[in-house]
Automatic annotation (TrEMBL):
Annotated compartments: Secreted
GO cellular component, one term: extracellular region
Keywords carried by this UniProt record: Carboxypeptidase, Disulfide bond, Hydrolase, Metal-binding, Metalloprotease, Protease, Secreted, Signal, Virulence, Zinc
CDD domains given in the database record: M14_CP_A-B_like (cd03860)
Function: Extracellular metalloprotease that contributes to pathogenicity.
Any Pfam family the entry gives: Peptidase_M14
Domain Peptidase M14: 121-426
Cofactor(s) it depends on: Zn(2+)
Active site: residue positions: E390 (proton donor/acceptor)
Protein name per UniProt: Carboxypeptidase M14A
């Protein structure tokens, strides 16, 4: 049946999420309230918080249908992110067939590039993994897929290693991680778009700059580093952020993987010790299986030929964030260089669709965040550049984490232009 619907070109139905946001209206609160102040002001309102606790970028909440009138009567300064969050989730969740269509039409049997229509919709985890296999089949002499380790629930943390004419592991590394926060769906597909462009450019005659880049750098790309959380967003709760670790004696599930990296892990104010918090750091530095796998993998890559550029992709709010997150008064030795390149990247991104990205050190630009990936990769794995990039949409736009699929390609196009600028200038 799946085969038949795919062959006819229909969208496959989204596996209905069990947590319903139907009728929920999502707002960004623009008043200068802190998180505790918002919690207090909203004590009689039924809502789900979509922000982390210590944000300086405004607080986003989804208000339950029965509380919308009461919330609006509070007279807070807000703007609407989703008129009906549930309706937008349903639209976004119309996954189009990927592998099914390939089987139907016989494509890729000879290692062709995957169909670009992959980027017309979001996908299930299995399709993300299949996409990596298909890129590897297209570039058999210059790539291999790898598994960095297993998630809490035993899923593969699967990536692809691309290398140039001198073979694997000889050149400085570029490492890209996507979807550490489960609900940030635009990140995995945007990273895959960049992967697609590298693969396409390397084989195409005439794209000298991409060929040179891959001959000079090894790429290690993991589009979904939090597979359990991601699957949970496709099957249970679209707005889930953390991993799915169950801990003894804790009622809440999940650790924020991006507060669990073992470096400056428990700096006060940079994360939460409470298991129910969206920024719960875990009970010990690096005590999630996912971060254990990612630190091992990253150190192995660093030992081979060093790390030139690390990016951990997030959404949303259009930011290019450099170290440090853990402290606002400490700067990396090469901060000026990192900011110069981040500024060039922002300019290159803007040149494509006019979308503005702000750049700066994480703590000073967005919020204090300890135990984050970029600080660890910069300090411990000694990457030259270690960034977090927050993709579309902007913080003043509508949407948020639930970005319509027709923005996948534009997001990919502007990030590809940006990445090419970095390759040419770093
Ligand atoms: Zn994130």
């Amino acid at each position: 049946m799946r085969f038949l619907t795919a062959a006819l070109g229909f969208a496959l139905p989204f596996a209905a999420a069990k947590v319903s946001y139907d009728g929920y209206k999502a707002f960004r609160i623009d008043d200068q309230l802190d998180y505790a102040g918002v919690q207090k002001a909203l004590s009689d309102i039924s809502f789900k918080s979509l922000s982390v606790e210590n944000t300086r970028k405004g607080i986003e909440i989804a208000v339950a249908p029965e509380s919308i009138k009461a919330f609006e009567a509070l007279g807070l300064k807000t703007h609407v992110v989703h008129e009906d969050l549930g309706a937008d989730i349903a639209l976004e969740g119309q996954f189009k067939p990927y592998r099914a269509s390939i089987k139907a039409f016989g494509a890729n049997s000879s290692g062709e590039l995957p169909d670009i229509s992959y980027f017309n919709s979001y996908h299930e985890l299995a399709d993300h993994h299949q996409f990596l296999d298909d890129i590897s089949a297209y570039l058999p002499d210059n790539s291999e897929t790898f598994v960095a380790g297993k998630s809490v629930e035993g899923r593969d943390i699967k990536g692809i290693h691309l290398y140039g004419k001198e073979g694997a592991g000889k050149k400085p590394a570029i490492i890209w991680h996507g979807n550490v926060h489960a609900r940030e769906w635009i990140t995995g597909v945007t990273v895959e778009y960049l992967l697609y462009k590298i693969a396409e450019g390397y084989k195409k005659t005439g794209d000298e700059s991409t060929a040179t880049t891959l001959d000079n750098y090894d790429f290690y790309i993991i589009p979904v580093v939090n597979p359990d959380g991601f699957v949970y967003t496709t099957a249970e709760d679209r707005m889930w952020r953390k991993n799915r670790q169950v801990r003894q004696g804790k009622t809440c599930v999940g650790t924020d993987m991006n507060r669990n990296w073992p470096n400056q892990w428990d700096i006060p104010g940079g994360s939460s010790p409470e298991a129910c918090s969206e920024t719960y750091r875990g009970e010990a530095a690096g005590d999630t299986p996912e971060i254990a796998a990612l630190t091992n993998h990253t150190l192995k890559v660093a030992d081979a030929a060093g790390i030139k550029w690390y990016v951990d992709w997030h959404s949303y709010s259009q930011l290019i964030l450099t170290p440090y997150g853990y402290d606002c008064n400490t700067d990396p030795a090469n901060l000026d260089r990192q900011l110069e390149l981040a500024g060039g990247l922002a300019k290159a991104i803007k040149s494509v669709h006019g979308v503005e990205f702000v750049y700066g050190p994480t703590c000073k630009t967005i919020y204090q965040a300890a135990g984050g990936s970029m600080d660890w990769v910069y300090d411990i794995a000694e990457a030259e550049l270690a960034w977090g990039i927050e993709l579309r949409p902007g913080s003043d736009d509508s949407n948020g984490f639930v970005l319509p699929p027709d923005q996948i390609v534009p997001s990919g196009e502007e990030q590809w232009a940006g990445a090419k600028w970095v390759f040419a200038n770093f």
